[in-house]
Amino acid sequence: MTENRAENEGGGVTTETDASPIQTTPAVVPTKSSLPTALLAVAGVVVAALLVGVGFLGWGYLQDRATEQARSDAVQAATAQATAMLSYNFNEVDQQLAAAADGLTSDFKGDYDKLVKETIAPGAKEKKITVEATVQAGAIESASPDDAVVLLYVNQITTSEEMPDAATTGSRVRMEMHKEGDRWLTGRLTPM
Questions:
Q1: Which stretch of DSSP H or E encloses residue 66?
Q2: CA distance 2 to 18
Q3: Is 21 exposed, middle or buried (CB count within 10 Å of its CB: 0-12, 13-18, 19+)?
Q4: Dihedral angle of Cα 159, 161, 162, 165, to the nearest 10 degrees
Q5: C-alpha closest to that of 144 among 50, 74, 81, 76
Q6: 150 three-state secondary structure
Q7: Structure confidence by residue, pLDDT tens digits, 99-117
Q8: Do 141 and 151 touch, CB atoms closer than 8 A?
């Protein structure tokens, strides 16, 4: 409590007042050095966000390019593989279809070898069958950089001892292709 005494000219009256002191806090005023620091921090955050965005878009672009390349490569590989798997001459059926098995995944190779040894090769030799397969068209059903499903339209010209005149048949096959290293291998061939 503070006493203020004031004397009146006329009566010498003294008065006491109760006044509390006014406390003021200094206002925070940005200094010249804090403003550029704040701007640098904001700019740093913006640059970091832009780099993350560009990185994400760049990764997406590379994935898209890899998928497009896979689409092209898988159709070419499936075309060559279907021709090798579906074409044979009764004189060389074992060697031809064994060579075709080189383009198969390890999972599919066992099933294919069994089918060749138990059914296709014995039948081809017995009836003197020759089959020439040609792929007329191919298209991608689905693709990623390392896997693709390819649809092929195949014509087969078949001759045999019983039917020396060539018989032509058309068929569709669905091939599951998997990239192992730099090669596309067939994981499954399904007639449609």
A1: helix 34-86
A2: 6
A3: exposed
A4: 40
A5: 74
A6: strand
A7: 999 999 999 999 999 999 9
A8: yes
Contacts (Cβ under 8 Å, ≥6 apart) of 53: none
Residue whose token pair is 């596309």: 184
In the chain, what percentage of residues exceed pLDDT 90? 59
The CA–CA distances, whole Å, from 78 to 132, 167, 177, 185 equal 16, 24, 7, 8
CA distance 115 to 125: 14
Q: Above 60 in pLDDT, residue 53? A: yes
> In this predicted model, which residue has the larger pLDDT, 11 or 128?
128
Q: How confident is the model at residue 30 (pLDDT cuts 50, 70, 90)?
A: low
Task: Please report where in the chains the tokens 């009256």 appear, as a residue.
Answer: 13
